[in-house]
Amino acid sequence: MLENQLLKIAQDFGSPVYVYDAEKIESQYHRLTNAFKSVKHLKLNYAVKALSNISILKLFKSLGSGIDTVSIQEVQLGLAAGFSPEQIIFTPNGVSLQEIEEAAQLGVKINIDNLSILEQFGTKHPKTPVCIRINPHVMAGGNANISVGHIDSKFGISIHQIPHILRIVENTKMNINGIHMHTGSDILDIEVFLYASEILFDTAKQFKNLDFIDFGSGFKVPYKEGDIETNIEELGKKLSNRFNAFCKEYGKDLTLAFEPGKFLVSESGSFLTQVNAVKQTTSTVFAQVDSGFNHLIRPMFYGSHHDIVNISNPNGRERFYTVVGYICETDTFGNNRRINEIKEGDILCFKNAGAYCFSMASNYNSRCRPAEVLWYNNKAHVIRKRETFDDILRNQVELDFSPKKEKVIA
Ligand SMILES: *Cc1c(COP(=O)(O)O)cnc(C)c1O
C-alpha cells in the first residue's frame, strides 16, 4: 500500500486505526504454498489468534486455507466465518476436558498436549480421532515468552513420554490421526527446524493410522531493515523432500500441515496514529500519539520493534524522536528513532501491525479500541467499527449507593 493511501484512510476514518492490505496477505499465503508445491497434500491452517477479525478469516477461507484455533470462541468464530469443522483444528493449551469435548462435538480436529487429558478423552471418546502435540525440546530462538519448545515449557507432551502415550493409546484403543509440534516463534536456523522435524518423523513412525503431520509455525518475518527472515523457499525445498521420502517409507501420502500466524498477516498491517504533542525535554524530543499500549502492546510486552514512519511528512528533515503513547504509565513505542520531522497533527504509521496487535488490544485507561480497515481491490473497507463510550459501559452493572431513607417512627 502507498503512504498516501494510508494517509487518506486516516483522514476518512479517523485515528487511531488499523489498516490491513489484503494483497500482502494473499502473497504471503501463496509464497508459502509455492515453497511446498512438491508435497501432494499441503494444508495451511491460519493461526486465528494473530488477527481474528471475521473478514480476515473469510479472506483466508477464500484462499483455501484452514484455521488453527486455541479457544472454543475461536472455533465458534471460524464456524461463523463459514469454515467447515474439518477445516478447523483446535490446538489449545491448559483448557478443561469439557472445552475439548465441546470442540469435538462441533466436529473440529482435536489436538491434545497433556497426558492426563489424553487418557480421559481417550477413555470417554475412543472413536474420536485425536492429534498429539509433541514437545521435541528444540528451542527456536527469539523471545523467552514465545519460545515454547524448551524443557520447562508448558506446551506439548515431551518426547520422553512417548512410551506413556503409546500405553494410553493401546489401553483406550483411541485413534491417533496426527502428530504436531509448534516450537515457538522466530525460526531463524532452518537446520534446527529440520532437526526438530526428524524427531517428529521418528515419533510419527510409532503411530499407524496417521492422516497428517503438523509442523506448527514460528516463521520469522523482518521487522526492520537488515532483519533476517526465515528462508521459506529453502525450508520448503528441504522439508518437502524429506517429507515425501517419509511418506514413501510410511506407505501413505500424508498431509503436511502448518499453522502460521505472524508470517501470513504481520507485514500486511499498518497502525496509524496522530501526534497529539511534540514535547521537548532536557534530553529528548517526545512525539506523543493518540494511542498507547492499550492498542499495541508488543513493544512494552515483548520489547518488539515496530518501524515508525511519519507519513504526513515523508520528505522532511530527519530528526531523533522517542515515540510514546498517552497511557498513564511508561508507554514507549520506540526509543530514539530517526523519523522525518514531526509536527503536531501528523500521522505516524507503525509497520508490521497485522499480527498480535489488534488481537491483544484492551480498554485500559477506559479508552475505546480502534477501528479496523481492510484495503481490498483498491478500496478501503471498514471491518470493525471504532468502539464508542457505550462499549466501555456495556456489561458493567451499576449499584445504587444512595443513602437509605430513614424510617419515620410514628
Ligand atoms: C500462536 C500459535 C501459532 C502461530 O504462531 P506464529 O508465530 O504467529 O506463526 C501456531 N500454532 C500454535 C499452536 C500457536 O499457539
Summarize the SSE layout with pairings.
Layout lengths: L2 H11 L3 E5 H14 L5 E7 L6 H10 L2 E4 L2 H9 L7 E3 L6 H9 L3 E4 L2 H10 L5 E6 L21 E2 L3 H11 L3 E5 L9 H15 L7 E3 L17 H19 L4 E4 L3 H4 L3 E12 L4 E5 L8 H5 L5 E3 L7 E7 L7 E9 L6 E4 L20 E6 L2 E6 L4 H5 L17
The chain binds pyridoxal-5'-phosphate.
Pyridoxal-5'-phosphate binds next to helix 10.
At a glance:
The protein has 410 residues and is of the alpha/beta class. Helices cover 30% and strands 23% of the residues. The model has no long low-confidence stretch (mean pLDDT 94).
Your description of this structure?
- By secondary structure, this protein is an alpha/beta fold.
- Helix content is 30%, strand content 23%.
- The chain has 2 domains: 22-265, Alpha-Beta Barrel (TIM Barrel), CATH 3.20.20.10; 267-388, Lyase, Ornithine Decarboxylase, Chain A, domain 1.
- The strands form 2 sheets. Strands 1, 11, 12, 13, 14, 15, 16, 17 and 18 form a 9-stranded mixed beta sheet that branches. The protein has an 8-stranded parallel beta barrel with strand order 2-3-4-5-6-8-9-10, surrounded by 5 helices.
- Helix 6 (115-124) packs parallel to helix 7.
- It is globular and about 65 Å long.
- The structure holds pyridoxal-5'-phosphate.
- Pyridoxal-5'-phosphate (PLP) binds next to helix 10.
- Residues 47, 49-50, 68, 70, 91, 182, 185, 216-219, 259-263, 355 line the site of pyridoxal-5'-phosphate.
